[in-house]
Amino acid sequence: MSNVNTVVFTIVVALFVLVACIGLAASRWRRADDMLHLNEWGLAGRGFGTFIGWFLLGGDLYTAYTFIAVPALVFASGSIGFFAVSYTIMVFPIAFIFLPRLWSICRVHNYVTPADFIRGRYGSRGLSLATAFTGILSLMPYIALQLVGIQAVLTVMGVEADSTNKYVQDIPLFVAFVVLAIYTYVSGLRAPAAISFVKDTLIYVFVIVAVFYIPTRLGGWSHIFGTAQTHMAAINPETKKPNGTFIPTSKSVGSTQLDFATLALGSALALFIYPHTITGALATKRRDVVKRNMALLPAYSVLLACIALFGYMALTDKPTAAAVKKAGNTQLAVPYLIQHMFPSWFTGIAFGAIIIGALVPAAIMAIAAANLFTRNIFKDFFKPDASPRLETRVSQWASLVVKFGALAFAVWLPHTFAINLQLLGGVWILQIFVMLVGGLFTRWFHRWALVIGWAAGMIYGTIAAYNVHSPTSSHWASSSDIVFGHTVYIGLTALVINVVLSVVLTVVFKAVKAPEGADETLPHQYTADPVDAPAPEPAGVGAAASD
Amino acid sequence: MTEPTATPSTPGDPQRAAATRQTNPVAAHPITSLAIGVLVAAAILGTLIVPIYARETPYVGDFPFFYFYLLIYMPAVALVLWIAMLLQRRLTPRQPAGPGSPGTAGDPVSGGVR
C-alpha cells in the first residue's frame, strides 16, 4: 500500500460507504406490505416509472466492464472497438420491437424470469430449464468481469497490498464484494435501483468533463485522431501486421466491415435477452415506460461513444501508453489515463464512478441469476409447492452463492479466462433468442426443435470460439472466426445454425405430429397493459397448481 | 387455440371484448403501421450497413466521418424511436375504463407509499 494516493483513496472509500448506506436503506424505499415475495425482492414491486426506469436500465446495461474493456479494445485494435457504439445504437430499435411484448406477457402472467415465459408458452419445463441454465451460465462470468473492472481500477490506485500472497492482495476486492452481497441480500433489486442514481450521475460528470478537458491537454481532437491513425497503420514487430485499423476495412478477413456489423448485430440481439436486462425491464410499471426508455436510453450510448474515444486518448498520451505497455494489460488504459490527466480529487471521483458502475450491474445480475435458479430449477424440479416466502428466501441465498462463485472466478482463475467466458456468454445467451423472441411472436416453433437448435448453437459456438487462434495465443483469440472466407462474429453464425435447425425440425416434428405442449398465453395478452402489478398472493399458489 | 384452465383472468369477457376490438390495429391503420415499420427498420439498417459510413472523409470538424456518424446517429435514433412510439399510440384506441385512472399514471417518480 506504499504508493497509494491518500486523496484518491479517501474519496473512493467515501463514495463506497455512501453507496453501501444507500443500498441498505433502499430496503425501506417504496416499501411493500410483504417484502418476502419475489415481485418485491427480485423486481422491486414492478412499479418503476420512466424516470427511475431510465436510471436503473442505464445502470444495468452499461457495465463497468464496458467502461474498461471497450476503450481497451479501441486502444489495442482501433476501429473494431467501435462496434460497441454501433451495437448500443442498434439495440434500442431491436428491443423496441419485442421488449414491450415480453413486458406485457410477463405482467399478465406474473412471470419473473424469461424462463417462466418459456415454460408458460411451450408448456415445457425442459425448455425452460435450458433457458435458465444458459442464463446462469452466461451471467456468472459477466459478474466476474465486473470484478475484473474493479481490479483494474484498484491496481492503478496501488491498493493491492505489497504482498505476493494472492489472498492478501485481493482483500479490497473481498471487502467490496461482501458489502455488495449484504445489501443485495437485504434490499434485492431496490438496492441497485437506488444506487444507480449515484452511478449514473458520477459517470455522466466524469465522462463529460473528461471528453471536453482531456483533448485540450493532448493538442485537440485532430492530434488524437492523427496519432491513432498513424499508430494503427504501423506494423507490429511481433505479428508483422498493422497494429489495428482506423476505419473498418472492406477486405474479407480481419477487422472488416462485415466483422464490425456482425459483432454489433449479434451483441445487440443478445443484450435484451440477458436475464439481468429483462429483470430491469420487468421492474417497470407500464408498457409505455419500456417504450419510452428505448427512446431515452440512447442518451446513455452517447457516453459510451465518448468512453470508447478514451482508448485513442490513452494512445495519444505518451506516459499513459507507456504505462499500459509496461503493465502489459490494455484494461489499465482508462484508469491510467484518468490518473495521469486529472488532479487527485477528480481521479477519486472517476475511479469511484467506475467501481460503483461495476457494483450496480453485478447486483442485478446476481438477482437475475438467483431468480432463474429459484423459479425454474428449484421450484420447477424440486419443490413445486414452494410458497412465495420460501421462493424469496431461496433467491436471497442463491444470490449470495452466485456472487461468491463469481468472486472465486475473478480471484482464482486467470483474467483472460473470465474474459473468454464472457465472450462465450454472449454467444451462449444468443442461443435462447429463437425460443424467447420467436415465442413472443409465434407459437409455430416446436419445442423439441427449439431444444435441438439451442443445443447445436451452444456446442458450435463453444467449439468455434475455442478454436480461434492468433500469433499470440493458441485458443480463444477473438470472438470472430472465418466462415466461407469472411470474418464473422461466432455468436451470429451459431444463431443462424440454431434458426435453421429450429425451422427444419419444426416442420419434421409437426409432420410426425409430436406433442406440442400446452400454451397458457393468449394473443391479446402480448399487447396488454395492466395497471396493477400482478397480485402477490396467487403468484406462488396459483402457479404451482398449473403444473 | 385451446383454452388453458390456468388463465387467471376470471372477468374474462370484458377483456376478451376489448381484445377483439384491439386485435388488429395494424389493419385499421395501414399507413401509420407502415411508417412505424420503416422508421424502426431504418434505425437498425443505418448502423448495420457499415459501408454507408466506414470512410475517413469528409472530416466534420476534427472528426473523421466514421466517428462523426456514429456519434450523431445516436440522438437521431432516439428521435426516431420517440416518433415511432407516438405513432404507435395512435394505433391503440385509449382504453376507456381502467388504465387512465389518475392514481397510478400521475405519480411517475413519487418515492412514497404506493
Map the helices and strands.
The complex is a heterodimer of chains A (547) and B (114).
Chain A: H1 6-25, H2 38-41, H3 50-61, H4 64-77, H5 83-109, H6 114-122, H7 125-157, H8 166-169, H9 171-187, H10 190-217, H11 220-233, E1 235-236, E2 241-242, H12 257-271, H13 275-282, H14 287-296, H15 298-316, H16 318-327, H17 333-341, H18 344-382, H19 388-412, H20 415-430, H21 433-441, H22 447-467, E3 480-483, E4 486-489, H23 490-511, H24 536-545
Antiparallel strand pairs in A: 1-2, 3-4
Helix pairs in contact in A: 1-9, 1-10, 1-18, 3-10, 3-13, 3-14, 4-7, 4-15, 4-18, 5-12, 5-14, 5-15, 6-7, 7-18, 7-19, 7-20, 9-18, 9-19, 10-15, 10-18, 11-15, 12-20, 13-18, 15-17, 16-17, 17-18, 18-19, 20-22, 20-23, 22-23
Chain B: H1 12-22, H2 25-28, H3 30-48, H4 65-91, H5 102-105
Specify which chain pair forms the largest interface. Answer: A-B, 67 and 61 residues
What separation lies between the terminal Cα atoms of chain A? 57 Å
Give helix % range of chain B: 55-70%
Shape of chain B: elongated
For the biggest sheet of chain A, the summary is: 2 strands, antiparallel
Number of strands of chain A: 4
Order of helices and strands of chain A: HHHHHHHHHHHEEHHHHHHHHHHHEEHH
Shape of chain A: globular
Oligomer: heterodimer
Polypeptide structure, described:
- The complex is a heterodimer of chains A (547) and B (114).
- Chain A has 547 residues and is mainly α.
- In chain A, 72% of the residues lie in helices and 2% in strands.
- Chain B is 57% helix and 0% strand.
- By secondary structure, chain B is mainly alpha-helical.
- Chain B has helices at residues 12-22, 25-28, 30-48, 65-91, 102-105.
- The chains are: A mainly alpha (547), B mainly alpha (114).
- At the A-B interface, helix 3, helix 5, helix 11, helix 12 and helix 14 of A face helix 1, helix 3 and helix 4 of B.
